[in-house]
Amino acid sequence: MMAPSQGGDLMSTPIHDPGRARSSLSIYLQEIGRYAARGDLVTANLAFVVRVARRYSGLGVALEDLISEGNLGLLEAARHFDPARGTRFITYAVWWIRKAILDAVSNQAAAVRLPHTQLRQIRLVLDAERELSRDLGRDAGRDQVARHLQTTTARVDRILQMKTRELSVDQTTGDHSELPFHESLVDVRTPSPEAALIRAEGRARVRVALEALGERERRVLADRFGLRRGRVLSLREIGGELGLSREAVRLIENRAKKKIRRMVSGRSRRAAATL
User: Which letter does DSSP use for residue 172 in this model?
Assistant: First the structure.
């Protein structure tokens, strides 16, 4: 009889040692339980996917397609989720759901030559409008949206008008500002992998790692994560304070991330790998 492979079906392999049989049965039942739990996680959060998808309707992709993509993101989140990390599943899953939906929107944008940066700006303004309207119990005015985003009403109007024209990533915003659109409105609604790391592992853990960086690296990374002032600073803003170009700040940020990646160990390592 051939020896069973290590990756074979545990329940189809004859086992004559009762102790080994009980151990194999336990492993098998754990596997069944894990897949059943994943199914429960997905089923329990399908309605949440619909709510997220509705926020991105009107950007060129049918709502049912957005929901389908969001469901795929939910499945991917369930596949990667590790409850031992102490993070609520929905907190972890929302990044995967939004990423899947935004990828679909981005792919559609490419088909009609609409820049992804432009879509992010439009989506950010629409998100702010919906959030404020929900809190106020009425439609939010453009001036309220502008204050919420810490920008001007004129800029909000221009962003909403961009549905019918293209805009370069590096084109400036006007209003006597040299700040490009992609840095003037930081996308705080959809967390990047860096922000996901902070939420998943806790700000305190990241602060400990920051202490091991050089002073300039620590300041740049803290400002990019919004740890010093409660808001994320653009590369240009940080560069202005330090007397450096945007590219120089970007290099410092990347170097600091590499150091963080090496320092974060144990349960943080998988999250840090996305930096």
Answer: E
